[in-house]
Structure formats: C-alpha cells, structure tokens
Design goal:
Layout: H1 2-18, E1 35-41, H2 48-67, E2 76-82, H3 87-99, E3 104-107, H4 111-123, E4 127-130, E5 147-149, H5 154-169, E6 172-178, H6 182-197, E7 201-208, H7 221-230, E8 234-238, H8 243-253, E9 260-262
Helix pairs in contact: 1-2, 3-4, 5-6
C-alpha cells in the first residue's frame, strides 16, 4: 500500500514537472498532443512479478490525473511495451519510445536489467524512473544523471533484515547469495556487514545463480549440505522468484528447518 501511494504521488509530481507547472493557478495551455510517458518494462519473464504491479499502478495514476482534467490542460498517455526481461529488447524499446517523443521513461525494477534502456533515455535528456529498484546504482553512480528510483534502497532493507535476524532468530547465520543480479548480491553484502557489526557470526556464504528464464542454473544440494554443517541460527536468502523459491524448497527438502529470512 505504501509503495502504491508513493508511486501515485510520484506520478503527480512528475506530471507537473513535465509541463513545467509550478502552481495550480497557472492558466491551462492549449494541448494539441498528449504528453507521452513511455514504459520499457517486463510484462513477461522473471521480472514481470515486480514490474507488473508497478505498471498497473502507473496506469491508475495516469487515469486519475486525466479524469481530473490532465496536467495544466494536457492529457497523459502511458505507452508500455514488453521488454520480456531482456536488456537488449529494453534498449530498442527505449530508443523507439524516445523517438516517439516520450517525456519520461519508466524502466524495469532492476538496475542490471534496465541499464541499457536507462542509458538511452538519459543520453537523450529524458527523465528515467524505475518504480522499484532497490540498488543505489539507479543514479549518478551508474552514469545516470537523470535516473531515479522510487524504491527503498537495498542497504537499508538488508540492515533491517540483519537486525531482526540477530535479535529474534540467532547470532549465527548462513547466507544463500544469488549471484545473478546486483540487487541480490548487494543485499547479502549489506546483511553480512550489519550482522557482523551487531556481533553476529556469518558461518558461510553459499553462492548460486539463476538462468535468464528465472530458474536455478544448477542444483544447490552442495550448498544445502554445507549449510547443514554450519548449524547456524538463521539463513539469509538473498534471491528472487523463481530460482529463489527453488533454493528455498531445496533447503527444506534437505532437512534444514532453520528460520529463513529474505528481502
């Protein structure tokens, strides 16, 4: 609910910025063409569970703004094209949307997947927004002077996970670290740093990866066996569907009933 409200409010603010409005008292302009908002996001593929709700919320926000008369007399149009969770397709879609005159580009909720499409918009001087990227890479650190995210930053999320785990579940942890994307690797890194700051011990870091289709690249039986030897008080699973769900199933199938915490 908080994310939905944040995205809707963000759209109102962004819409005002797109037409250069700073006051509700300004006279409405004569709009011959609507304001185009492009969306190079995943409607299929492993990022679709994240991008889908954000796209739906964006369309709801656009509809509400238009029903209220638009922005300074201008209607908004949201054109969303499915990237299929493919960075190269996202890049081409972004290129096409910018060429159509998009004033704002929405991109996939992962900095690794959206980097190419974000760079297209940024280089064209078009504002680029990721509704739910948690990585701090969505901005100047990644060469995006016009790149922003409405998501919560990973370091904060992971620190809260670590604090809860340490206080409620145990002072030793085993990490299951998905190496597929920056979000999951940085989540485990931040968790480990905060857990150790609190006085906890990380027994081991078990790495695994997913395919582009969102399934385990290889079985994680060896990682589960190592985790059983650790006998830690908590397992931190830094991953995402569906490989993350497969990893969790393997943990339980391997006889580990240790509490699992995940972002």
């Amino acid at each position: 609910m908080k994310f939905t409200k944040r995205l809707a409010i963000g759209f109102v603010v962004l819409a005002l910025a797109l037409t250069g409005c700073s006051s509700s008292s300004e006279k409405a302009v004569d709009c011959t063409d609507p304001i185009l908002i492009g969306a190079a996001m995943a409607q299929t593929g492993f990022m679709s569970p994240f991008d889908g709700p954000a796209l739906t919320t964006a369309q709801i926000a656009v509809d509400k703004i238009n029903a209220a008369g638009g922005v300074n007399g201008c209607q908004l149009v949201l054109e969303a094209v499915d990237t299929e969770t493919n960075p190269d397709k996202g890049q081409q879609i972004a290129t096409d949307l910018v060429a159509k005159g998009a004033k704002l580009l929405l991109v996939t909720c992962d900095a690794d997947i959206n980097l190419k499409s974000s760079q297209v918009a940024n280089d064209a001087g078009v504002l680029v927004i990721a509704p739910c990227v948690g990585s701090t890479a969505m901005g100047p650190d990644n060469g995006l002077d016009l790149g922003y995210s409405l998501g919560s930053a990973v370091p904060g999320e992971a620190a809260i996970m670590a604090e809860y785990a340490y206080e409620k579940l145990g002072q030793t942890a085993t990490l299951f670290k998905d190496m597929s994307i920056a979000y999951t690797t940085s989540q485990c890194d931040a968790f480990e740093a905060r857990f150790k700051e609190l006085g906890g011990t990380v027994k081991s870091v078990q790495q695994f990866s997913q395919t582009q289709a969102g399934a385990l690249d290889k079985p994680v039986k060896a990682q589960v066996a190592n985790a059983k030897k650790d006998a830690a008080g908590v397992i931190a699973l830094c991953s995402y569907p569906g490989g993350g769900a497969e990893a969790l199933a393997a943990i339980r199938a391997g006889g580990l009933n240790t509490p699992v915490i995940s972002g």
